[in-house]
Every structure is written in structure tokens, then in C-alpha cells.
Specification:
This protein is an alpha/beta fold. It is built from ten helices and nine strands. The termini are far apart.
Length: 322
């Protein structure tokens, strides 16, 4: 064996040993999602690398299960149908009272239009800086993707809202036609606002032009083309939802009537008459009465969904929302 050849073999061996030592230090490759494995995905991080994790167990809530939010449901349903059909559609911001059906509507839309190619990717607020990477991962796919950000809000000085602004409508690169962002929040403008900011001529901290700072806050929510507002349920609707769920646990009519006072106190303690609170009270009451879980063909749907229905005196049905 000639000397140059030996030197080449020795160099290759040393290089291979070096690569073996460096490999554990390198970030792992991002796993390729199995697009056929699920209808929804969650953005996760592992060793600093983001990937789409398939969600195999989904709530079985349907649009037909949500009532007393007819106007809101009609607007977001029409927007989503346009999106799935490949027509122009808007990013959506759902704001308002907690437990009034915001997230439930998004879950119901997935169940309604999954067969038409709709998919949902859930992204937590802490991962919003990865939005460009997520959008790039789904660009060119035949499916239609809703990026879902639940309970979205930002503190003053939080830089993550800028990443959301860029993806919504702030980058020189156009967003793919197969991606929309649906977000829920209790704040319409997503960021805290202060009374002093209403007085533009008044100095606010070190800000020389407070009006411009206010414009920046408002500009984030304005990048959502569709705003949908939700409102608290009244007492009658709340009690009817409670009655519906107590009945599903096997409680008799007289027992449901006796539970009304406790149901109202339960809501008073939590400061909210919502479908979610009604469901929680019904579970607590039924548990204390040793009632079994709801049985029957619709039991799985009622237990897994975070929104439900109950008859109202007018013949309508009220939503139990997430």
C-alpha cells in the first residue's frame, strides 16, 4: 500500500471518528409528520427542534350541537366553507366571555370539514416565533390548514406578537393560500390597554408619541379580517344547560329542581354563568350523588366534547362551550 493511500485511509478514519463524536451534539432532524395519521396536529419542541405531533383523539363536538350562538356560528362557518372550497377567506379572531363557545366552534369546524381536507394545527403562545417554520412545513400541501391559537393574549413588551403580525399580514412573502389563523382571546385587542392611553396629549411613561404605541397594539387585532364576539349566557340558559347535563347523568326531574340553587351558587363562586361552568357543576353534583357517567350511543360524544346543548324555554338549545 503506497504512502499517499495510507494517509488517505488514515484521514478518513479520523474524520469518521470525529463525526461520531460530533453527532450527539447536533440537533436532531425534524420528524416528517404522517399527514394521513390524523386530522389535527400540535406543534411541539424536542431538543430545540419543532415538529408536528399527530392528535389522534379529538372531541366529537359538531356544529349542530352549538346553539344560542347562531350568528357567530354562521359567520365563521361561511368563512371556513370559503376556505375549504379554495375561495378567498379571512383570518378569524374570536373574542369575548370565557366558556361561551369560542374554542368549541373551531373543534366543531374541524369535524364538519375534515372530510373536505380541513386540518387544524394547534400552536401555543410560547411557540408563536415558530409560525414561519410551521407555515413553510405545510406550504404546497393539498390540505387546508387552520393554525389554531387558543386563549391568546400578550403582555406589554412581549415580542412574540410581532411574529404573529408578520404571518398574518406583514411579510414581503405572501402567506400560502392553504393556511389561515384562527385565534381565541378574552381581549379584543390581545394586549393590555390603559386608561392613560386614552389621553394622547398626556405623557405615558417615556413614550413621546403615545398615540403611535396605541396604534401598534390595535394593528395586531386588525390583521384578523373577521372579528367574532361572544357574550355570557343569562340565568335561564345556564340553568337549562345544568338540567340537560344532570339529566344525562340520570338525575330525576325533582332532583334537578333541587340542584338549581346549588348550581347558581356554583356559578356565583366562579363569577361566570357559562356552559363550561354548568358542565363542571353537573359532574360535581352527579359525583356526590354517586351517579354513573352518561350511557348510550351519544355518551362518548357528550363526555369528550367541551361544548354541548340544552333545551331552553323557547324551544332553542343552549351551547355548553369550552
Amino acid at each position: 500500500m503506497t504512502d499517499p493511500f495510507r494517509q488517505l485511509v488514515s484521514f478518513l478514519l479520523r474524520a469518521e471518528q470525529l463525526l461520531d463524536r460530533l453527532e450527539p451534539l447536533l440537533p436532531p432532524a425534524s420528524p416528517i409528520p404522517d399527514w394521513d395519521a390524523a386530522r389535527a396536529f400540535r406543534w411541539r419542541k424536542r431538543h430545540g427542534v419543532g415538529y408536528l405531533q399527530a392528535i389522534t383523539r379529538l372531541p366529537a363536538i359538531r356544529l349542530a350541537d352549538l346553539h344560542d350562538v347562531d350568528q357567530q356560528k354562521a359567520r365563521i362557518d361561511a368563512n371556513t366553507r370559503q376556505f375549504v372550497a379554495g375561495q378567498p377567506a379571512n383570518n378569524v379572531l374570536l373574542t369575548g366571555a370565557r366558556g361561551s363557545g369560542k374554542s368549541s366552534l373551531v373543534k366543531a369546524l374541524l369535524n364538519e370539514y375534515a372530510v373536505s381536507g380541513l386540518r387544524v394545527i394547534e400552536v401555543e403562545k410560547g411557540d408563536l416565533t415558530d409560525l414561519p417554520e410551521i407555515v413553510e412545513a405545510v406550504d404546497g400541501r393539498p390540505e387546508r390548514f387552520i393554525i389554531f391559537c387558543d386563549d391568546l393574549s400578550f403582555d406589554s413588551g412581549d415580542a412574540r406578537y410581532k411574529a404573529l403580525k408578520v404571518v398574518l399580514d406583514g411579510s414581503i412573502a405572501a402567506a400560502p393560500d392553504n393556511v389561515l389563523i384562527y385565534a381565541t382571546s378574552n381581549r379584543r385587542h390581545l394586549m393590555p390597554e390603559y386608561f392613560a392611553e386614552n389621553l394622547e396629549s398626556k405623557r405615558v411613561g417615556e413614550e413621546i408619541h403615545p398615540g403611535e404605541a396605541i396604534e401598534e397594539k390595535i394593528s395586531l387585532s386588525e390583521r384578523f379580517g373577521l372579528w367574532i364576539s361572544f357574550y355570557p349566557f343569562d340565568q335561564d340558559a345556564y340553568l337549562n344547560i345544568v338540567a340537560h347535563w344532570l339529566k344525562s347523568f340520570g338525575c330525576a326531574g325533582d332532583e334537578i329542581v333541587r340542584a338549581e340553587r346549588e348550581a347558581l351558587n356554583w356559578a356565583l363562586e366562579r363569577g361566570s354563568r357559562s356552559g363550561r361552568v354548568a358542565w363542571q357543576f353537573a359532574r360535581d353534583w352527579a359525583g356526590r350523588q354517586h351517579r354513573p357517567p352518561p350511557a348510550g350511543p351519544g355518551a362518548r360524544r357528550r363526555r369528550s366534547a367541551t361544548a354541548g346543548v340544552a333545551p331552553t324555554p323557547s324551544g332553542k338549545r343552549s351551547a355548553r362551550a369550552s
